[in-house]
Amino acid sequence: MSWLQAVVLRVAHMGPWGVVLFTAAYVAAAVTLAPAFILTFAAGAIFGLWRGTLIVFFAALLGAIAVYGLAAPLAHGRIMRRFERDARVAAIRRAVVSDALWVMFLLRLSPLVPYVLLNYALALSGVRFKDFVLASVGMLPAIVMYAYYGKIVGDVAKLAAGVSPPRGVEYWTLVGIGLVATIVATSMITRAARRAMEQQRITGGLDGSVPE
Known about the structure:
By secondary structure, the chain is mainly alpha-helical. The protein is built from 12 helices and no strands. It is globular and about 60 Å long. The C terminus is likely disordered. The chain has one domain.
């Protein structure tokens, strides 16, 4: 997105105030579903690896919290209640909540699940704020890697223009770990959902009602 490119170029020439603008841009990207990974790459080139990693993590956490504040109230709203009329949807939501911290950590660990989409998906699932925040630690490996590649490229203008950094062994290793984490998280959700649906059938049989 053009506004992200402009922000990246601006941040590179603002000194200490660049951190403030960068953080604000990251929060805005999280809320508007803009490709925040562009900012993560650029952070390595602008701030260096470790400083960039800390700044990105703080900004990404604030962005995720902002999304939670916007989306979490909708988790129990009219639209979600309508979806929950389907027993399968209701069971999956209960499954996510039952193992929330561990499942969210695994999903955060995976670079295969976009940060901006995952924020909304988790917030709408009805998870607790505390678990939502704690699981954000899972973002760190991907942040370190992207900041590292941004530092290697070192050219803010190229990164702002959308040039992809090189993808070495580190990238594919993290992708592999993320794939395994995604499979494990999906398996946990599936098993928990089956248990929830089975419990619903048993309960429905006991009270004489028929689950929808």
